[in-house]
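During the no-cost extension, the postdoctoral fellow (Dr. R.K.) reprocessed legacy sequence entries with the updated structure-token encoder. One reprocessed record is reproduced below for audit purposes.
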Amino acid sequence: MMARMEFADRIVEAQRRKDSIAVLGVDPHLDTRQAPGIPAGYSLMRFCCEVVEASADFVIAIKPQLAFFEARGIEGMRALVEILALARRLELLTIADAKRGDIGSTSAAYAEAFLGHGDFACDAVTVNPYLGSDAMLPSSRARVTGVACSCWSRLRMLHRGNSRISLRLSARSGRLLPSGYADGATTLSARAG
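Re-encoded structure tokens follow.
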């Protein structure tokens, strides 16, 4: 039995095969007073599946934002399962945009949910490393999967404006976050706006 390719190798192979680096974000926004999140006449599943199918020739992966599916309850989670299955049939990589991060046992459960063999299985998952290596290790141990860390963009967002924000970090997280900024602020006391 041939070993499964590592995630990074599969990304490169998909990029070469399609001559593309595009990843489709599947973010079916919730309804607002100004506009519905899903066009009239569509179910969540039908709308998202049609978008994925229409984009399949041009993208290498899909990245469903789980919050928009979770907020819709069972209907949303059933739609997510069908969208992931469709993407696999279309030979697209799947990235769970979950931004999960917690202590070891909880992170291990998230890794099993999104990187295991269950209904929500994806090729990669986004994680939030603010609780340190415990938040990332369970997801990064499986070499055939990918882990995208969301901390750097979040730190840039926290570093704008004038008000101060204090961040609580576990003892291990210092290895994952930068120690300071050019103006002297640290990750424990960064400026936010």
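The helical segments are 7-18, 44-55, 66-70, 73-89, 104-115, 133-140, 151-158. Residues 142-193 have pLDDT under 50 and may be disordered. The remaining legacy entries will be reprocessed before the final report is submitted.
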